[in-house]
Amino acid sequence: MATLKDVAREVGLSVGTVSRVLNNRGYISAETRANVRAAMQKLDYQPNEVARSLSRQRTSTIGLIMPSIEHPYFARLISCLERSAYERAYKILLFCAYGIPDQEKKFVEACRSNRVAGLIICSDSVRTETFSNLGFPLISYERYLDSSDACVLCDNEEGGGLAAKELIERGCRRPAYLCGRSRVGMPADMRKDGFLNVCRQYGISPETYLFEADRMLDVQYCPEIISFLKEHPCTDGLFCGSDVIAAEAIQAASVLGIDVPGRLKIVGFDDVLPAVLTSPKITTIRQPVKEMAKACIELIDKKNSGESVPSRSVFHVSLVRRGTT
Amino acid sequence: MATLKDVAREVGLSVGTVSRVLNNRGYISAETRANVRAAMQKLDYQPNEVARSLSRQRTSTIGLIMPSIEHPYFARLISCLERSAYERAYKILLFCAYGIPDQEKKFVEACRSNRVAGLIICSDSVRTETFSNLGFPLISYERYLDSSDACVLCDNEEGGGLAAKELIERGCRRPAYLCGRSRVGMPADMRKDGFLNVCRQYGISPETYLFEADRMLDVQYCPEIISFLKEHPCTDGLFCGSDVIAAEAIQAASVLGIDVPGRLKIVGFDDVLPAVLTSPKITTIRQPVKEMAKACIELIDKKNSGESVPSRSVFHVSLVRRGTT
DNA sequence: AAATGTATGTCAATCGTTTAACATGTTTGA
DNA sequence: TCAAACATGTTAAACGATTGACATACATTT
Fold first, then answer.
1. Which of residues 225-284 of A touch B (CB under 8 A)?
2. Are A70 and B83 within 8 A, CB to CB?
3. Which nucleotide is nearest to A29 (CA to C1')?
4. pLDDT category, A128, cuts 50, 70, 90?
5. Do residues A174 and A209 make contact, with C-beta atoms less than 8 angstroms apart?
6. Residue A268: how many CB atoms within 10 A of its CB?
7. Lowest mean pLDDT among A5-9, A27-31, B312-316
8. CA-based nearest distance A200→chain B, Å
9. Would you say the C-beta of A23 is within 7 Å of strand D?
10. Which of A55, A239, A251, B281 is most buried when burial is the number of CB atoms within 10 A of its CB?
11. Touching check for A201 and chain B: CB below 8 Å?
């Protein structure tokens, strides 16, 4: 591929001059500029971003380390991040660590090697590993990571509360909370807190069920939900840790011949695609993923410009009422 | 961050020597090797991949240009591609072009600038643009792209045929095909061909309905499906262009009080998450996405090693029978 | 006429590696 | 004993840009 030198030779100038028209720096006559541009066109010149990055000592790449790509929530998140990145002229380097601390560590190193402009991580080794001296801003998404420069999360507790309120106001007296992992400080745990608190305010004490396995999408929760509903036949409301779980709760109800929302009301979380693909559609807690993604990118930008940024950015969630309540 | 020079200074050697232990080239005494490694450890040295790439004249990054990230099919595809890439020590540079030719072109240029090791594109400007002289292998996914080095796709026609066979053998006499865009050479078009051909063999001539809009996920197809079913009340089978569409077909049936699979049978396509989140679960045509993704990465690898590769790799699909037929 | 500012362009160091070409010993084997 | 092979390490030129320091020429001011 053609280099700056080739272009320079073509128009009979030094590479320095050509570089200046490329970067719009210094004084350049209109004629020279035109000549250079023409030569670039002619040689199909494409600036070598690798060389540029080395010289400038920075890249325009943002690393992403996610626990899943296929899960609808992360698919949506990654999609939003890509868009926000694009709007600010960043590219996305994508890694999927499947929640395995060892992989996360490896990918963090990969990001260091590649001198990314920033790293957004949704880590599951929050307490295991401390990342420091990275050389670029580290944004923790939906997790509290001590070594991060900033955390971006939604108000999970508020979400739990909204769900409780919805279920109870719609008549539920025996609600339950269903979710996967629930380590302290993780979103699911905070959703539970919010849920339980509001229930308590209404004088209700709900069941809580944590799924055995927690492999994101590998497992089907439906059988476990069926067992749960059989063991707690009076349950009249379910707050599910995600829309995927909520969808499977609908399946479970369908299998057991329980009418939704008649005999059982369901509230999901996230407001992602599955919430609108089921029958009935799922009442859920909406996370403003787009805004949260935008915040991540902006935080990196600001941090890199030397601005100081809030260590936590918490976003409000809202209830989206559909067919399951 | 520490550089090779720093490490060299630390152990009192030249950078050349240090580079050799880093790359396991040439003769190095065990002692020197140990010293160097210790120094690297001590200085928390991390090789600068940017400099490396510049020097080696190649990166270990594979570009991905997709029309969507959030759509379950692409979420799955990207997930599989990331895994296969990781297994071969590649990283993923992710772009989403939303099917906009202009964006695709821009991203192809970005990949050129970044000197990717290869580019996998699921392009919607197949006929609009010709990419040539890229400097790296171009793999076209699920599309026939003239300027590509290789195409990877599933046997969409076979899939259409399988769907027709399933519907008809299960008793449908008035099946219909529902899908989004349908330009010649696109998967949807080939699925239709396969579907129509097999129907014809059975002496049946099905309806075909193309959705107005085609914005992947922005649009809800449900209302259009409802209209269709109202206008064609005898329809007893639906072959949907994707599982997402199939899920919405179930919703439409539910709204109209049509029993699935009793009065209406449905076959989807892809076999991705939504297929197992609905009630009933969707009978669908399974694409071996994992294998297809692996093939993409391997093709790039081989092409870069000078091997010649098949210009087309077509994968068999299979019927996965679930609750909608 | 000297000083200042504007306009145009060149030069060479630098970014952090890789790698071919050398230099210099030390073993071995015939 | 001499050459070949082995072992260890150095040097310096790439890779393809960026960028501060200069050089030169002309047009205005003062």
1. 244, 247-248, 250-251, 254-255, 273-274, 276-281
2. no
3. C8
4. low
5. no
6. 31
7. A27-31
8. 32
9. yes
10. A239
11. no
B28 touches chain A (CB under 8 A): no
Q: What is the pLDDT of residue B290?
A: 98
CB A296 within 8 A of CB A120: yes
pLDDT at A23 > cutoff 70: yes
Tokens of A255: 């299998």
Q: Which residue has the tokens 């849920």?
A: A195
Q: What are the structure tokens assigned to A102, written together?
A: 């060892």
Interface contact flag, B114 A91, Cβ < 8 Å:
yes
pLDDT tens string A72-92: 999 999 999 999 999 999 999
Burial profile A216-239: b = 16 or more Cβ within 10 angstroms, e = fewer: beeeebbebbbebbeeeeebbbbb
Q: pLDDT per residue over B218-254, tens digit each?
A: 678 999 999 999 999 999 999 999 999 999 999 999 9
Alpha carbon distance B271, B114 (integer Å): 34
Q: Does A105 touch chain B (CB under 8 A)?
A: no
A129 has a pLDDT exceeding 80: no
What is the C-alpha to C-alpha distance for residues B253 and B264, in angstroms, rounded to an integer?
Answer: 8
Other beta carbons within 10 Å of B290? 15
pLDDT of residue A99: 87
B277 to A279: CB separation less than 8 angstroms, yes or no: no
Please identify residues in chain A, positions 163-202, with a C-beta within 7 angstroms of any atom of strand D: none
Between chain A and chain B, how many beta carbons pairs sit less than 8 Å apart? 149
* Residue whose CA is minimally distant from C11 C1': A16
Show the domains of chain A with their CATH numbers.
4-47 (1.10.260.40), 57-153+289-315 (3.40.50.2300), 156-288 (3.40.50.2300)
Average pLDDT over residues A203-219: 79
Structure token pair of residue B34: 């140990």
Report the pLDDT value the prediction gives residue A147, as an integer from 0 to 100: 84
Tell me the residue length of chain B. 325
Structure tokens at A275: 């919430």
SS3 B197: helix
Among A287, A289, A241, which Cα is nearest to A267's?
A241
CB neighbours of residue B16 within 10 Å? 10
